[in-house]
């Protein structure tokens, strides 16, 4: 028996009324009960068949088609689990956001393996029991078809398992390999103190359709934060890569043909002809007497703002001394930590002190956020990480921090506190419980700049449809400590009903609780299909497949 | 300069003219009319009503309603910048304008943005 859902919402091959719902056929849930999420009560009943009939003659409100259709995911849930499926020992990284590929790396960190997610497909000769899957169906390749395996890293290089960016329109994937990290953090010709050095970091652009390596770009004796793709950001066809060691932002363009072309380099110089100008005036030959271009922009912005604050000319100099000159060296010592695109021309840059630059803990250190216009090379505005003004923008317009016109429609519907009443409620609860307002603001600001493609667009994380424990599982793909109990996904519409459970680990559940266990979850962007991967120290990895039977 | 406003000769003299509709005893009485000649031919249904020279109040707009003289000044376009960027630009424009003899409290309030890293988060926020 094979079943192939062609499209996410057209799957009534067996319109089963969900049997566990006590109030499955209750008339439309009153919209008011959901506190303003009016779309939740669109369908008049929770029953799948009756929702399909409703869909024939009710039309959603303008602009809310996707939100309405997504409610079908309440009925189509990955409730069946195959535990500890027999699969190759690869480390599975991610489903691409268009759902076409599953990316994995070999254990020795040298090969890239790409699978195509197919729906459960198998054939069996003997009589199939309709309740249980036959044994030979419960295999990894019933769900995933291996497309190819290519070698990305050569002998002394390793693929960074955490780094992967996907360009959907051409199905290009960006990967990174690096040599071992050396602890030589001395400042050498342009490099700053305190940042380690890696002999070679290479970025590869791979066409995922067939595994062809289209282009590569190498950075030598540099340091780029590759963990969780933090050091790079993809926006349309532009990638910005932050070289922490040389304090430079490299902006590369991915051409349609697949070549990576550096279009801008911001750091020592801001405009393309700055270097030429300085050389032609003989200035650069005298050594590093100039501050880097981006630093000059930052300082001049702070200077002008401090200047404008004091209207009285007589007091102005004093004000400048206190606010600007006294802290001049602190401003000069700031370094770029992380960068993202706000649109094609604007970057959102986080500056901080050297100590916090390499690690990800940003709570204690002070930081500044700058909006930088690449074309005019101006800094548009600058905020400290405790700024209430920036927090207000964060609260209202968070989605615009990761808006990307070229992304698939799935990414536009990722729940956040700016588009979901429930998430905003949660945020306000934390805000009200926080002992110190500025500590709360700093904690929230630690999530900016946004980390590219860090959230899964799966509708099972949509907070208007499901509630789940965000400490155990969430749209952000991070490794989490494993829990004994299954993770419940509860319907928002009917708060007592658990729609499905995800249980990582083996069926028996009873494993050595002393061993440290980490789970990660990979959700397909639109199929009711998920992988939960549990890694235990010194034990083989357990992979479970959760899907809708 | 624009077109001439219609003359409303009646309103200057009469203190509070009763409209023709009010004279008819209609529940819609009291509505002003643009053209004073409207309803002038009407015969009140109630014969006992006094045939006064009713002049309806004339509606005169409080603003100029003619289209902009210069073509192209009322063109509607899509803002290319997204709202987040617009706010960034707006906030910086508000702060960049040099203050004109602003009171001391205002300068303090806006001075928070340029607080140095050395000050740290130890100072309480004076910002509203």
UniProtKB/TrEMBL annotation, chain A:
Amino acid composition bias (Polar residues), ranges on this chain: 1-13
Gene Ontology CC terms, in alphabetical order: cullin-RING ubiquitin ligase complex; nucleus
Highest taxon listed in the record's lineage: Eukaryota
GO biological process, one term: protein ubiquitination
Stretches the record annotates as Disordered: 1-23
InterPro entries: De-etiolated_protein_1_Det1
One GO MF term: ubiquitin protein ligase binding
Protein known as: Light-mediated development protein DET1
Lineage of the organism: Eukaryota, Viridiplantae, Streptophyta, Embryophyta, Tracheophyta
UniProtKB/TrEMBL annotation, chain B:
Bias-annotated ranges (Polar residues): 8-17
A single BP term in Gene Ontology: positive regulation of proteasomal ubiquitin-dependent protein catabolic process
InterPro entries to which the protein is assigned, alphabetical: DDA1-like, DDA1_dom
Region (Disordered) location: 1-54, 89-128
Domain DET1- and DDB1-associated protein, residue spans: 28-93
GO CC entries: Cul4-RING E3 ubiquitin ligase complex
Family assignment from sequence similarity: Belongs to the DDA1 family.
PANTHER family for this protein: DET1- AND DDB1-ASSOCIATED PROTEIN 1
Protein name as it appears in the record: DET1- and DDB1-associated protein 1 domain-containing protein
Organism field: Aegilops tauschii subsp. strangulata
Lineage: Eukaryota, Viridiplantae, Streptophyta, Embryophyta, Tracheophyta
């Amino acid at each position: 028996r094979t079943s192939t859902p062609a499209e996410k919402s057209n799957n009534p091959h067996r319109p089963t009324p969900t049997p566990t719902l006590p109030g499955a056929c209750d008339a439309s849930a009153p919209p008011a009960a959901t506190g303003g999420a009016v779309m939740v009560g669109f369908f008049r009943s929770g029953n799948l068949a009756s929702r399909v009939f409703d869909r024939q003659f009710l039309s959603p409100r303008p602009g809310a088609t996707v939100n309405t259709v997504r409610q079908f995911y309440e009925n189509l849930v990955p409730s069946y689990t195959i535990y500890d499926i027999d699969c190759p020992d690869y480390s599975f990284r991610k489903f691409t956001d268009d759902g076409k590929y599953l990316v994995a790396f070999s254990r020795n960190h040298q090969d890239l393996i790409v699978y195509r997610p197919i729906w459960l497909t198998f054939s069996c000769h003997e009589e199939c029991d309709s309740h249980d899957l036959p044994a030979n169906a419960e295999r990894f390749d019933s769900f995933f078809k291996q497309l190819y395996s290519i070698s990305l890293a050569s002998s002394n290089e390793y693929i960074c398992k955490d780094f992967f960016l996907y360009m959907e329109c051409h199905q290009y994937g960006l990967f990174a390999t690096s040599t071992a990290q050396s602890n030589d953090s001395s400042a050498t010709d342009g490099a700053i103190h305190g940042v380690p050095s890696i002999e070679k970091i290479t970025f590869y652009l791979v066409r995922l359709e067939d595994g062809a390596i289209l282009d590569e770009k190498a950075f030598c004796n540099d340091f780029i934060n590759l963990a969780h793709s933090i050091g790079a950001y993809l926006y349309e066809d532009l990638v910005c890569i932050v070289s922490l060691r040389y304090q430079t932002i490299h902006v590369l363009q991915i051409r349609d043909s697949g070549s990576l072309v550096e279009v801008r380099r911001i750091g020592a110089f801001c405009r393309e002809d700055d270097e030429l100008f300085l050389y032609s005036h003989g200035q650069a030959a005298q050594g590093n007497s100039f501050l880097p271009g981006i630093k000059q922009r930052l300082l001049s912005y702070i200077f002008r703002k401090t200047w404008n604050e004091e209207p009285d000319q007589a007091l102005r100099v004093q004000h400048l001394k206190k606010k600007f000159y006294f802290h001049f060296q602190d401003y000069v010592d700031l370094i770029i930590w992380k960068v993202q695109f706000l649109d094609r021309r604007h970057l959102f840059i986080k500056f901080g002190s050297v100590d916090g630059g390499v690690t990800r803990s940003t709570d204690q250190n002070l930081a500044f956020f700058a909006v930088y216009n690449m074309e005019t090379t101006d800094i548009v505005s600058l905020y400290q990480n405790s700024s209430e003004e920036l927090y207000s923008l964060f609260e209202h317009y968070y989605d615009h921090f990761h808006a990307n016109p070229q992304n698939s429609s799935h990414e536009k519907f990722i729940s956040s506190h700016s588009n979901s009443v429930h998430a905003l409620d949660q945020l306000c609860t934390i805000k009200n419980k926080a002992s110190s307002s500025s500590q709360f603001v700093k904690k929230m600001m630690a999530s900016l700049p946004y980390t590219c493609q860090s959230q899964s667009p799966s509708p099972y994380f949509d907070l208007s449809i499901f509630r789940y424990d965000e400490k155990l599982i969430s749209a952000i793909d991070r490794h989490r400590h494993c829990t004994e109990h299954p993770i419940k996904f509860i319907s928002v519409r009917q708060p007592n009903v658990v729609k499905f459970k995800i249980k990582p680990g083996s069926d028996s559940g009873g494993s050595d609780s002393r061993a440290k266990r980490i789970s990660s979850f990979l959700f397909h962007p639109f199929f009711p299909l998920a992988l939960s991967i549990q890694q235990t120290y010194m034990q083989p990895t357990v992979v479970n497949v959760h899907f809708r039977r | 300069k624009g077109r001439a406003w219609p003359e409303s000769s009646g309103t200057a003299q009469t203190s509070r003219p009763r409209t023709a509709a009010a004279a008819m005893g209609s529940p819609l009485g009291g509505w002003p009319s643009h053209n004073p000649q409207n309803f002038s031919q009407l015969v009140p249904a109630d014969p006992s009503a006094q045939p006064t020279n009713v002049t309806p109040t004339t509606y005169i707009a409080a603003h100029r309603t003619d289209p902009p003289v210069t073509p192209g000044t009322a063109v509607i376009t899509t803002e290319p910048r997204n709202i987040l960027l617009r706010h960034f630009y707006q906030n910086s424009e508000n702060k960049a304008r040099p203050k004109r003899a602003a009171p001391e409290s205002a300068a303090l309030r806006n001075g928070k943005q340029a607080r140095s890293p050395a000050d740290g988060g130890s100072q309480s926020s004076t910002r509203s």
